[in-house]
User: Fold this.
Amino acid sequence: MANIVIVEDDLNVANVYKKRFEEDGHKVEITDDVGALDTIKNQKPNLILLDILMPKISGMTILRELKSDPDLEEIPVLILTNVEGTNELSQAVTLGASAYLVKADTNIDMLSAKVKEVLESGAIATGIKG
Assistant:
């Protein structure tokens, strides 16, 4: 069982992820962009699922903050977003994302499998898309 924090502004989407991850045996916390860093600092999760496009704080800004904090930099971050640009992918990988998935191309079973893979491998910055 892993502790997972989902940083997502769409609560319907976040709750679908949460339900599946809890079925997979994980403990899940949902937070928005503004509360993300505090939640992650308090929870010290095994994995973070992070959206890029959010209303107040970009996921890239959150990723940058996480990877610059010695207490949080080793936590794997899985980017799950609808931003498909190579620029964003490259930036996420450079900042230390463990994986980059496009929501429109990723069903819940694929996401569950990727979460399991990242948790089992302990991947910190593999740079693998999908």
